[in-house]
Write a structure and sequence with these properties.
- This protein has helices at about 5-20, 25-35, 40-50, 55-65, 75, 100-110, 130-140, 150-165, 205-210, 215, 225-235, 255-260, and strands at about 80, 85-90, 120-125, 145-150, 170-175, 185-190, 240-245, 265-275, 280-285.
- By secondary structure, it is an alpha/beta fold.
- It folds into two domains: about 5-70, Helicase, Ruva Protein, domain 3 (Orthogonal Bundle); about 85-285, Vaccinia Virus protein VP39 (Rossmann fold, 3-Layer(aba) Sandwich).
- It has a seven-stranded mixed β-sheet, sandwiched between helices. A two-stranded antiparallel sheet has the order 1-2.
- Strand 3 (about 120-125), helix 7 (about 130-140) and strand 4 form a beta-alpha-beta unit.
- Helix 2 crosses helix 4.
- The radius of gyration is 21 Å and the shape is elongated.
């Protein structure tokens, strides 16, 4: 394939993707080819033309055809990037988003303020394992327990932990929040990306988001059902001092602050904004 034909292949795919509302069609087409060739973007343009054959073009076009249905590209390829690492994903888990990297950063910063050795972390709703695995790799001194109600999700998380050499630092438990854990304070940090979308907002979500497991998205009439359980139950499992941190929806900060302030066990509560200046991560602290 000539270099000009590579550019045409990408441009044609981009136009198709953009006709169905995918704004970054060119970038997606390049990314697909990079994944198929196991290249970065520079090597795609340097060496791709000599390696792209009819068989690879057929695979590329099949992926584009599937993506035109607005099915998530991460599910089509079976992988997603998070914090500079490639994770396996499938329909049993949510596609990780850049906003969750803010929660990871909050875990790592809080871990440096904890007194325990090792610092113990509970990841509630582990999903694909991006938080637990990334935290374990960024700070090997952490002892992490990862829970999820879904056995299928735990299978994906274990697979990612094994692939990325973090399995020896993470204990996986099937649990509905804290239900399968022994009672008593045992964690320095409890972190979660809970379902926080209000049930009534589901129909208006982008098709890509609707492909995520509903149990990972919907949090009741106001999106607060699981968040309220976390706020109420977490202090029973936190050491002193300890941190509860979790993601929230764009319009939930006021309700979350009210729930935290109503519980005298929490001494403070702060918010972290994402790159779009939206309230995204809540950090609550308990003291002795």
């Amino acid at each position: 394939m000539a270099a000009g034909n590579l550019n045409t292949l990408i441009a044609d795919a981009a136009r198709k993707l953009e006709t169905v509302g995918i704004e970054s069609g060119g970038a997606e087409a390049e990314y697909i080819l990079c994944e198929l060739l196991d290249f970065d973007r520079l090597h795609l343009y340097l060496h791709g033309p000599s390696l792209i054959d009819d068989a690879l073009i057929a695979r590329f076009e099949a992926i584009i055809a599937k993506r035109l249905t607005r099915y998530p590209l991460q599910y089509i390829l079976g992988v997603a990037w998070f914090f500079g690492r490639k994770f396996i994903v499938n329909e049993a888990v949510m596609v990780p988003t850049p906003e969750t990297e803010l929660l990871l950063d909050s875990i790592l910063r809080a871990s440096r303020r904890c007194r325990s050795h090792p610092v113990t972390v509970l990841d509630v709703g582990v999903g694909s394992g991006v938080l637990s695995v990334s935290a374990a790799l960024e700070n090997p001194e952490l002892a992490i327990t990862a829970v999820d109600i879904s056995d299928a999700a735990l299978g994906v998380a274990r697979q990612n932990a094994e692939r990325l050499d973090a399995a020896d630092r993470i204990t996986f438990v099937q649990s509905d929040l804290f239900s399968a854990l022994k009672p008593g304070p045992q964690f320095d940090i409890i972190a979660s990306n809970p379902p926080y979308i209000a049930d009534g907002e589901y129909d208006g979500l982008p098709l890509e988001v609707k492909a995520d497991p509903r149990i990972s998205l919907l949090g009741g009439p106001k999106g607060m059902d699981i968040i309220n359980r976390l706020i109420k139950e977490a202090p029973d499992y936190l050491r002193r001092p300890g941190y509860l941190m979790f993601e929230i929806g764009y319009d939930q900060a006021q309700d979350v602050f009210a729930a935290v302030q109503a519980d005298s066990l929490y001494v403070d509560c702060t918010l972290q904004k994402d790159l779009n200046d939206i309230d995204r991560v809540v950090i609550c602290r308990v003291e002795s």
